[in-house]
Amino acid sequence: MNILVEHVSKRYGSHEALKGIDLRIEQGMFGLLGPNGAGKTTLLRILATLLRPTNGRVIIGSSDLSQRTQRKMVRAHLGYLPQELGFYPDLTGREFLDYMGLLKRLYDRNARRRQIAALLNIVNLAEHADRQIKTYSGGMKRRLGIAQALLGDPQVLVIDEPTTGLDPEERIRLRTLLTRLAEDRIVILSTHVVEDINQTCERLAVLDKGRLVFDGLTRQLIEEASGHTWQFLAAPNYTPPLDLSVISALSQRGGTLYHVVGPEPRGPVQDVQRLSPTLEDGYVWLRQGSKP
Ligand SMILES: Nc1ncnc2c1ncn2[C@@H]1O[C@H](COP(=O)(O)OP(=O)(O)OP(=O)(O)O)[C@@H](O)[C@H]1O
Known about the structure:
InterPro entries: AAA+_ATPase, ABC_transporter-like_ATP-bd, ABC_transporter-like_CS, P-loop_NTPase. The protein is an alpha/beta fold and 292 residues long. It has two domains: 220 residues, Rossmann fold (3-Layer(aba) Sandwich); 49 residues. The protein contains nine helices and 14 strands. The strands form three sheets. Strands 6-7-8-3-9-10 form a six-stranded mixed beta sheet, sandwiched between helices. A four-stranded antiparallel beta sheet has the order 2-1-4-5, covered by helices on one side. The protein has a four-stranded antiparallel beta sheet with strand order 12-13-11-14. Helix 3 packs across helix 4 and helix 8 crosses helix 9. Adenosine-5'-triphosphate binds next to strand 2 and helix 1.
């Protein structure tokens, strides 16, 4: 199955949140990266059939989302985890999934229960399934959110900012889970955390102010910063010029060790070395280029 996004624009009043987006998304994990307000959630909500584009169209498999009957068909094969999923805190994890299963029209009680038990295992919540959700940690709630998105075994999973606020262990656990789920479906992961994409997605798109500023392989974006990523040592009172984006500045004996993206550093700096870029460098380099 493929997803085609053709010239999609979205206006909220006079504000254009998406400006003519074209994308092709294939099986596996696809990353959507961009700063706050770039239009990621708007695009995900369009893909999840919750919002209609002002212009353009989206085709999922053979269904055109501009047609009402086809949107309905797609909904049966699509799971969505929004940034803020409303839970009923007094329900247990299992009861919540049962309720969501009914909303997804899984009316056969035994089949629904079997599916929920399997999903609780997949997201590693089986032993907490009969506790009230109000006793869950942030990571457990996020995993429960993924379980509800997986009800009905959807071919497309759309996940908005899943790792926000999670500790490093939960973040890794969630990334591993999503990678596994992407083995036999499309998983679209939106985030502003570059490392989440680096660890999981072979392909990504970058949005900035509603425009598509990159669409390609993750390693291509890394490559873009090749020859523009530097390390150098500077005195404690040194201020980097505006054309250098500071990725990190590590205070140490003898000065501060800078890792920057931009033109070759000059001026009162020592030990200038070219570095192999990371995805963060590629992303920052791209954002430097897209600034007015
Ligand atoms: N319902 C709405 N009405 C008016 N403007 C909106 C609405 N939803 C989003 N916007 C605006 O559209 C732009 C894109 O918002 P969107 O939530 O899609 O961005 P985002 O990339 O998901 O940002 P974040 O990472 O902060 O969630 C923002 O400027 C936002 O303020």
